[in-house]
Amino acid sequence: MSDFSYEAPEILKDYLYYLQTIKGKSTHTVDEYYSDIRLFLRYIKLKRKTGGSSPDEISQIKIDDIDLGFIKSITLTDAYEFMNYLRRDRNNNASTRARKTSAIKGFFNFLTVKKNLLEKNPLESLDRPKEKKSLPKYLTLEQSIELLNAVDGKFKERDYCILTFFLNCGMRLSELVGLNYTDIRSDNTARIVGKGNKERLIYLNSACISAYQNYMKVRPTDGLAQADKYALFLSSRNRRISREMVQKIVYKYLEKIGLNAQGYSVHKLRHTAATLMYQNGNVDIRVLKEILGHENLGTTEIYTHLNTTQMEQAANANPLSKVKSKK
């Protein structure tokens, strides 16, 4: 994990602290932003010095001396040359380049709009690379049931509850790890803290409540550190379970049912929950948006393209579907 507190120039620290404290971005997200902006500044600095950008040299470039004067000298052409460098020399795909574009544009927008240090944002018209739109991968209903039935072992109640929450509620990995048992309410709702520390309530169906109650019967209560006292899911060492441990648990059971090498992951369980709800429950897309904690409806709308059965029914409903040539 990056430590920008001593490596970053003051002008960049201001932005990163703003993301953390005002915008409520997670530490992981702030670290990614820092890494992306640092690479951009290193590239510009090396380019100004040598006219080139050797991948071997660039990681050695220090940026702690960068000041406002240097920032003001950066142009839109510099940014496009950086994007070309990412594609040509670092083989970054469109998605990675798009993320880096957002990071550096956000930084320059902050300096222009929030700090009023720049009269005009030179990167305002920097375009994001066009990303390939692919449909999310998900488990079928039968595969989901098979996954749940595969749970066994010493921590079977915990593991079953984790998988049940993923498959029924569409939680993000960070949301599940951050759950406290005090977040589970008597009215069968749960308080979720999502991206940007935004809270939302989700409804726990009977499968979730049953799995939760069975787990709480065996959840350790003694020997817990004060910081982990209320954590819902605990590791074998009685500490709040880590993201990495949850990933290992999910991969373990995916492998057990033969899905480990097919591109499935923890996040695919979130896609599975959303898909099953939309396809089988006639759930309004706006309701699904709230359940998943999406900021934009457009992010949720991808699930409307997954139901091929509905597409087949729509095609067959066309009154011309039965008309055939008389010749």
Radius of gyration: 24 Å
Shape: globular
Strand adjacency order, main sheet: 1-2
β-sheet strand percentage = under 5%
- Counted by DSSP, the helix tally is 16
Instruction: Compute the number of strand runs.
Output: 2
SSE string: HHHHHHHHHHEEHHHHHH
- Give the termini distance in whole angstroms: 71 Å
Work out the helicity level.
Answer: 40-55%
Largest sheet: 2 strands, antiparallel
What do the pLDDT scores average to?
A: 83
Alpha-beta classification:
mainly alpha
Unreliable spans: none
Q: How does this model look, in words?
A:
With 327 residues, the chain is mainly alpha-helical. The protein contains 16 helices and two strands. A hairpin with a 5-residue loop joins strand 1 and strand 2 (199-203). Helix 2 packs antiparallel against helix 3 and helix 3 crosses helix 7 (94-114). The longest helix has 24 residues, at 27-50. It starts with a helix and ends in a 10-residue tail after the last helix.
Label this structure with key terms.
327 residues, mainly alpha, two-stranded antiparallel ribbon, 16 helices, 2 strands, 54% helix, globular
